[in-house]
Design goal:
Layout (H helix, E strand, L loop, with lengths): L19 H26 L8 H5 L6 H43 L13 H23 L5
């Protein structure tokens, strides 16, 4: 057993029931984060051009930037989609497991009733994710082909 609370703001001896829905939403959030990271790496890997392009060197000059750009775009869109799924899955998980107060304590750096004098690190870290999601929307929406 752990001394840590099951989620920020919960009493240390609290038991959070984990329904099949909560477990599924948590799994979707975890897998989508891993896929977003993979897609980001692939997108950045395909963004090189000129003599620094690994694809050009690896294929002896047969493939280069013109062939990499469509793959770069696809990987970037998948990264944005998976990051969006991740950003929506975890607030849903917190809502399912602890209600709106859990969403507040886990997604914003608000003081928790269990430890009002301690900084809410989980809320702070997740708040950066909330801010990144809003910033990503500001970048993704103007990049949509219909709007562009």
């Amino acid at each position: 057993t752990s001394d840590a609370a099951p989620y920020a703001g919960a009493p240390r001896d609290a038991v959070v029931p984990c329904s099949a829905l909560a477990f599924s939403v948590d799994a979707v959030g975890l897998v989508s984060a891993r896929l977003a990271r993979f897609d980001l790496g692939l997108s950045l890997l395909l963004a090189t051009r000129g003599g620094s392009g690994w694809l050009l060197r690896a294929t002896g000059g047969w493939l280069g930037l013109p062939e990499a750009v469509p793959l770069h775009r696809i990987a970037g869109w998948w990264c944005a989609a998976q990051a969006g799924v991740h950003s929506l899955a975890y607030p849903a998980f917190y809502l399912i497991t602890g209600g709106w107060s859990s969403v507040w304590w886990n997604c914003f750096p608000a003081a928790t009733p269990a430890a009002a004098s301690m900084p809410n690190r989980m809320g702070l870290v997740n708040f950066f994710g909330v801010a990144a999601f809003v910033a990503a929307l500001a970048v993704v929406i103007p990049a949509l082909p219909r709007i562009r």
